[in-house]
Amino acid sequence: MPATYAFRLLNVFAESTFGGNPLCVFDDARGLDDATMQALALQFNLSETTFILPSTVADARVRIFTTGYEMPFAGHPTLGTAHAVRELLGLDDALTLEFKAGVVPVTAQGDVWTFTAPCPGGVKTAPSPLSRADAAALVGLQADDLATDPIWVDTGADQFLIPLKTADAVRRAQPDSGSLERWPVSSLGRKTAYVFAFDDAAPGQVLARYFFTKQGGGVAEDPGTGSACANLGGWLLATGHALPARYAIDQGAAVGRPSRLHLAVSTDKAIQVGGRVIEIGRGSVTIDPVGRTLLA
């Protein structure tokens, strides 16, 4: 017999209806196997799609799939899924979600959600395999545009961070898709680069962009990346930044999806990332016994 699964579409880190990073959330993924979850993520073709399941250690268990593989943790899927779980289970504004990376507490003030990064063993870092000049060349910049050495940071998902001197340098970044073989590879097999700069014209604000290589070649840009924002918090800790620290991070304008992320790092080194979640639609998918998929 065909089985029908409800989903909802949300924008995370959104300050307006069509801002932020899009997310598809399946309300109840019981009955879906791994291959079907992966196929549905590819069907929707968003940066991530999440699937809600029962949990014995949290309010819900969440699985996160990109179009090509499963992730242990990601930022905007955490916040968007929490928004859905609160309504589905009739919970208050504090809940927990179980991911492969661990149990993550999430809180809300209205539709503004905040998660605490899942790094119980502390922030993990590793030096860049590239020189400043080579790292800068990945994103079409010069070595002089870099503020400090690039670094790998992991607060739940490892990513390559490239600190820049100015917001103008962030805006000028232009990845070279012809040099993808030189991009460093994460533990998940991903090639990504998160460039950021503190905005001297606006204290307390950061301008950031997140680039990743696509299946089949080429480079794409993510509108709002919560895991990278958490890793920026890890970077603050790794570089001895004064605590507590609090920043507003702007991302996504270059791809027409303005996003606003909120980062806080406490004196006890807890890293929190937040942003507004807006639901924009719902639907269902019917999967027949031979695997054909119908959207409704």
Properties at a glance:
296 residues; eight-stranded mixed beta barrel; 5 helices; alpha+beta; 39% strand
What does it look like?
- The protein is of the alpha+beta class.
- It has five helices and 18 strands.
- The two termini are 17 Å apart.
- The mean pLDDT is 93.
Number of helices: 5
Mean pLDDT: 93
- Strand count, sense and closure of the main sheet? 8 strands, mixed, barrel
Structural class, from helix and strand content? alpha+beta
Can you list the strand order of the major beta sheet? 1-2-3-4-6-7-8-17
β-strand number: 18
Overall helicity: 10-25%
- Contiguous runs where pLDDT drops below 50 for at least 5 residues: none
Distance between the termini: 17 Å
Can I get a quick summary?
This protein is 18% helix and 39% strand. The chain has five helices and 18 strands.
Question: Strands, helices and their partners?
Answer:
Blueprint: E1 3-12, E2 21-26, H1 34-44, E3 49-53, E4 60-65, E5 70-71, H2 75-89, E6 94-99, E7 102-109, E8 112-116, E9 124-127, H3 132-138, E10 151-154, E11 159-163, H4 167-172, E12 192-198, E13 205-213, E14 219-222, H5 226-238, E15 245-251, E16 259-265, E17 271-287, E18 293-295
Parallel strand pairs: 2-3, 4-6, 11-12, 13-15
Antiparallel strand pairs: 1-2, 1-17, 3-4, 4-5, 6-7, 7-8, 8-17, 9-10, 10-11, 12-13, 13-14, 15-16, 16-17, 17-18
